[in-house]
Amino acid sequence: MPDHDSTALLSRQTKRRRVDIGVKRTVGTASAFFAKARATFFSAMNPQGSEQDVEYSVVQHADGEKSNVLRKLLKRANSYEDAMMPFPGATIISQLLKNNMNKNGGTEPSFQASGLSSTGSEVHQEDICSNSSRDSPPECLSPFGRPTMSQFDMDRLCDEHLRAKRARVENIIRGMSHSPSVALRGNENEREMAPQSVSPRESYRENKRKQKLPQQQQQSFQQLVSARKEQKREERRQLKQQLEDMQKQLRQLQEKFYQIYDSTDSENDEDGNLSEDSMRSEILEARAQDSVGRSDNEMCELDPGQFIDRARALIREQEMAENKPKREGSHKERDPGPNSLQPEGKHLAETLKQELNTAMSQVVDTVVKVFSAKPSRQVPQVFPPLQIPQARFAVNGENHNFHTANQRLQCFGDVIIPNPLDTFGSVQMRVPQTRRKPCPWWSAKTPRTSLPPAPRGHHQPLHQSPCRPPRASPSTFRHPFPSLDGLPVSESNRCSHRLLLGKDRASPESLDLTRETTSLRTKMSSHHLSHHPCSPAHPPSTAEGLSLSLIKSECGDLQDMSEISPYSGSAMQEGLSPNHLKKAKLMFFYTRYPSSNMLKTYFSDVKFNRCITSQLIKWFSNFREFYYIQMEKYARQAINDGVTSTEELSITRDCELYRALNMHYNKANDFEVPERFLEVAQITLREFFNAIIAGKDVDPSWKKAIYKVICKLDSEVPEIFKSPNCLQELLHE
DNA sequence: AACGTGCCTG
DNA sequence: CAGGCACGTT
């Protein structure tokens, strides 16, 4: 260690006072001098004698089980939601058909043999693809239909893909031996008639290429095109055949249905009150007719949205059909046997209902559990500290509870409503308290008239003694996860304030929460998707939920990689985004002195270069600067307020210092500040306090000792921060 | 020399 | 928050 004091003395003369301390960020290299000094400091400050340097083994996601349950539930619910999106609508029908196949199994052999099970769903799929492909080719290959894709569908797609490939090869060979007398228009027709074997994108590129090609090559393309045309015609014939078979099967089923149900149902059908059967047959017949009577182009005209509408109607009808026999009372037992169409729809509806019920009830249970814990004075009853040690980092939906409506109001999109506390004036500006002793400024409960009111609108107990802030102040920020620590924080204060719960967890939270996370997700997603060619036609709202990796894999699987921009091929970003800044700020709650290597691992989605690295380092430098400025400011303020002992200095989630810091690093207040940060902040504050009290601030380099202490207090940053999507995960759950 | 840090400034 | 600077460390 160089002699900082001498250098500082020298530089004192200079215009700029240099207070470089060369704080090393590696823990192991701290000098013995500082270790001793620190020990002295702490023993002086901290009679309890707990050791600062205790290494905290951070147990990640200690509450993971609960959060996972919720996450899974929500995701499960989402997958159903996804299934209700326009595109997957077709998949629902495919699922129905598949279900039918499974359910009926041996009892309905005709169904299996009819081709409805495979070709039928294939038709659906391809209809949709070709339909959308004309407007926006990539949509066909977009992953939006994938989440619900079954193994069955996958296999089918593979087969299809192979078939298409083979066809292309054959066509090329054929085209080489064919006469070059084919009209150019053939290509156009082919694209419209049989889009399923030549991907729209391919056709498009072909078209583009053609314009640039010389005459000779154009001819060979025409040959190729005509060959394909023939092949498509053949396929089309086969398809028609299959569809006609399907029609037959459906008619048979319809007849069966009518036999089972009395004439009332039949009348309903005619009235437009469609039963499940007529609904199904309507869809399929429409298709069959399309394929037979119209051009294939028209066949593609079916709006994908109609699928979902029909699917919904189908489910409704199924439910109605389900209830009917019950109302009739005596027919209860007779249904399952002869009714061959009931089981599949029933099964789907029941599964859906069951899943939704389970999910909902579990979610409600979880939430109610947390909320019911709120009024109790004993948090540990619900979250015993020892069961969830080190829960300073919570990735749990329950953590949203400490958000309040007002806080959340501050973060709609990027519109931040300024927190009055953000403009908290400097110490010197403040009117000295009339008095002191018992009214430390750092307590939120301190009735500081010079300060704006607390932003969350909680009511302070009228006769609560403001003199014992941490003990008596209900913490509106308090979260239900206590942390295990061994820090020299005033034990009584910590314990008491841990027991306090926020009392204003507003009811509109769930709503706000949704909007908040949506806005965040939108920001994240739009950022990623803005570079992405795979789904150009999709508004961000539909694309939000998709992870980049999913899109990537989709593109990789199904698209010509050469068509993909460098961005979609790799998640690496050229520069740092506002979200990276936000993430860095949240990381500051854990580490004040991250090494550049650490930054590289935690910002893995950024293409690192010297500039990026130094920018990130600069960020943290700026964070520290703000942090230490606040600390000094509040320490001086405390001294001015007559505080004489560090014992009186404690940082809670209510105190102004905390709020200032929180506003700076966690403006939207959508992240739960780890308990450890409060502890570190308290230590820092006390360090400053003691130094100032001791008059050390006359030395220009007086802060270096404090920096040295604080740089040792970094804790491990949770693993989740390594994820490029951590913001979504952190703030969503 | 390259890098990291803190201070100051805008 | 970033740029510029001085300085310490490697």
From TrEMBL:
GO molecular function, one term: nuclear receptor binding
Superkingdom in the source lineage: Eukaryota
Domain Prospero stretches: 573-731
GO cellular component, one term: nucleoplasm
Annotated spans, Disordered: 103-149, 178-242, 320-344, 437-489
Keyword DNA-binding: yes
Polar residues composition bias: residue spans: 103-135
InterPro entries per the UniProt record, alphabetical: Homeo_prospero_dom, Homeo_prospero_dom_sf, Homeodomain-like_sf, Prospero_homeodomain
Biased composition (Low complexity): 213-223
SUPFAM superfamilies from the UniProt entry: Homeodomain-like
PROSITE patterns: HOMEO_PROSPERO
Composition bias type Basic and acidic residues, residue spans: 227-242, 320-336
UniProt keyword list: DNA-binding, Homeobox, Nucleus, Transcription, Transcription regulation
Keyword Lipid metabolism appears in the UniProt entry: no
Subcellular location: Nucleus
A Gene Ontology BP annotation from the UniProt entry: lymphangiogenesis
Coiled-coil annotated spans: none
A Pfam family that the UniProt record links to this protein: HPD
The protein's name in its UniProt record: Prospero homeobox 1
Gene: PROX1
